[in-house]
Amino acid sequence: PADLRRFRDYLRALTEHDGPGEPDLSAFADFSQFPRYGATFAQNARAVAEERAARPPQRGDAPGFERLAVLDVGLNPHQIAFSADGRTAYVAAAGSDQVAVVDVATRTLARTIPVRGTPLAAVPLPGGTSLAVTRFGGEEIARYRISDGAELGALRTGGAPSLLTPIGEGRFLVSVERTDRVHVFDARTFDLAHTYATGRRPFPAAATTDGRLAFVPAYDDGTVTVVDLWNDTVVARVEVGERPSGGAVLPGDLEYAVAVRGEDRIAFVNTASKEVVGSLSEGIGASPFSVVVAPDGRLAFVNNTASHDVSVIALPEKRVIARLPVGAQPIVMAVHPSGATLWVSSEGSHELTVFRIPERWRAARDGGSPALPAGV
């Protein structure tokens, strides 16, 4: 009946509120809670919970996730990286040949650093005075001084280096799409320490927290190459599905989650057996591109490039809880080191979107975590 549906709408308004103050219940000003609707309060609450659980989140379902800002940082923004103190974000704007420098506290563009060669990544190096910038069109990694933007040197990588994945001790993984290779880039010496063969057209890599295993999706042959970095050898090539494009190692280092773009799902690879052990498609949008995990490990995020949204996955349940609308073709994401905000680069609409992550999905930060800038 209509009265029961309205009662359930009232319950949703109560249970989905996640902001400061009380929920807005003005639409229910004439509403009274009486059992004349043929069910008890508890029965209605259970019905609402069952309805919500039975329906995967749709685009726009974003309980508690607040859009804080949409920024113009240049054309075709890609990788987002943060300074060690968490106060500055660096965004590679590939179409503008520049790096945008963003004040995290105010969420405003502070300045830009001109670069060359279609930059896909701009990551601060140890010491915090310079950036490593991958030149997708220039086939190299360049170094720029942050203070004045001066170019300090460049390192040849081969055709089309993409994003930079930190693996500790000043080292990064960089996949090179046109040579079917992944390099270990040592920023301390500004040199390539190791090189490994991958599948066809490797996309950005991920690694276990101890830096031992690297996982490299190969977009054109549907595999993930697993590299033992400690023993300097390729140990497996795992078939995961059509067009795997980016992934992350989940908390505990037990599984690697990779977006299978051609099949609109996430595949899970056991890091010990190197076998696919699961899949998630419910709640994943069209053309998922990559996976990132929040610092506390409670949430994972998947950018869906064709449905123009981000699926939010609760861990360890592997359940999609939200679908956040963003600009056209969200291509790269990052979670602020504080765990408070999600940053999304949308290549097609040339914008950077910042979301606040609800407090209930954030674990308490320990004393060693970066300070939370005002406004984050």
Description of the structure:
- The chain is mainly β and 376 residues long.
- The protein folds into two domains: 2-26 and 33-54, no CATH class; 66-361, 7 Propeller (Methylamine Dehydrogenase, Chain H), CATH 2.130.10.10.
- 7% of the residues lie in helices and 45% in strands.
- It has two helices and 28 strands.
- It has helices at 2-15, 41-54, and strands at 66-71, 77-82, 88-93, 98-103, 108-114, 119-124, 130-135, 140-145, 151-156, 161-168, 171-176, 181-186, 191-197, 206-207, 213-218, 223-228, 233-239, 244-249, 255-260, 265-270, 276-280, 288-293, 299-304, 309-314, 319-325, 330-335, 341-346, 351-356.
- It has a four-stranded antiparallel sheet, with no helix packed on it. Strands 2-3-4-5 form a four-stranded antiparallel sheet, with no helix packed on it.
- Strand 3 (88-93) and strand 4 form a beta hairpin.
- It is globular.
- The termini are far apart.
- The model is unreliable at 364-373 (pLDDT under 50).
Q: What is the CATH T-level topology of the largest domain?
A: Methylamine Dehydrogenase, Chain H
Number of domains: 2
Q: Structural class from helices and strands?
A: mainly beta
> CATH homologous superfamily of the largest domain - what is it?
YVTN repeat-like/Quinoprotein amine dehydrogenase
The CATH architecture of the largest domain can be named as: 7 Propeller
Radius of gyration: 22 Å
Residues in β-strands, percent? 35-45%
Q: What is the share of helical residues? A: under 10%
What is the 3D shape? globular
The side-by-side strand order for the widest beta sheet comes to 1-28-27-26
What is the ordering of alpha helices and beta strands?
HHEEEEEEEEEEEEEEEEEEEEEEEEEEEE
Mean pLDDT metric: 91
Could you name the CATH class of the largest domain?
Mainly Beta
Largest sheet: 4 strands, antiparallel
Enumerate the spans where pLDDT stays under 50 for 5 or more consecutive residues. Answer: 364-373
First-to-last CA distance: 44 Å
Tally of individual helices: 2
How many E strands?
A: 28
